[in-house]
Design brief:
Largest sheet of chain B: none
Strand content of chain A: under 5%
CATH superfamily of chain B: Fumarate reductase/succinate dehydrogenase, transmembrane subunit
Radius of gyration of chain B: 21 Å
Distance between the termini of chain A: 67 Å
CATH architecture of chain B: Up-down Bundle
Shape of chain A: elongated
Number of helices of chain A: 5
Largest sheet of chain A: none
Order of helices and strands of chain B: HHHH
Distance between the termini of chain B: 65 Å
Shape of chain B: elongated
Oligomer: heterodimer
Structural class of chain B: mainly alpha
Number of helices of chain B: 4
Number of strands of chain A: 0
Amino acid sequence: MSFMTDRKRAVGLGSAKSGTEHHWSMMVSSTALLILMPLFVFTFGYALGRPYEEVIAYYRQPLPALIAALTFAVGFYHFKGGVQVLIEDYVHGFARKLLIIAMICLSIAAAAAGVFAVARIAI
Amino acid sequence: MADMNRGNRPLSPHITIYKPQMTSMTSIFVRITGNALLVAALMIVWWFLAASSGPDAFATADAVLRSWFGDLVLFLSVWALWYHTLGGLRHLIWDNGYGLDLQSSYTMGYIMIGGSVVLTIVIAIIV
């Protein structure tokens, strides 16, 4: 049994002081995705199911390519912020840090792969 | 001292004995759909990478996305996407201080459930 008082135990355990910034970044990216996602669903839905040559020709056009690249970039940025909150709520200790780092790396890698692929087709 | 009776008290929010409500369920499903969308997102990135690599790689990825498994994942993901989008819209409305009363929360919850199903069917028919 320790003789720490409740106050002593609470001192130094303040907020991370970056919650507002995190919330704002989710608000900005979700507003952007409100516009991007329907556009992506329709353009990708148009391309999926077509033969290779038609898919390539379609994504050589600036608008479908731009929509896809932006959706990957903003979408995985939004996912990075969302999954971080999920992990913080349910995973504790060292596993939490490890999982957050892994998910940040996965998000950035997937976004980079998506944007790179679209750019390679389009250019 | 302050440590007395620590660790064996019931702690809020009593999730295991709490009666599921429409408001709590629509909220948790926003989280579930948002994170589950990772599966479809990675599949689509793979499809684009394969298309940028060449016809052979594209044939493999395209076959997986258009198989019954790919179809199922993408169809459910369209619903998850619409549900999460409407849920996010509800959060943006809440963030601006509107609709925070119980009645509005319920109304918007029903709009999320109904709207996501209708929009998914519309997309499935168009695309």
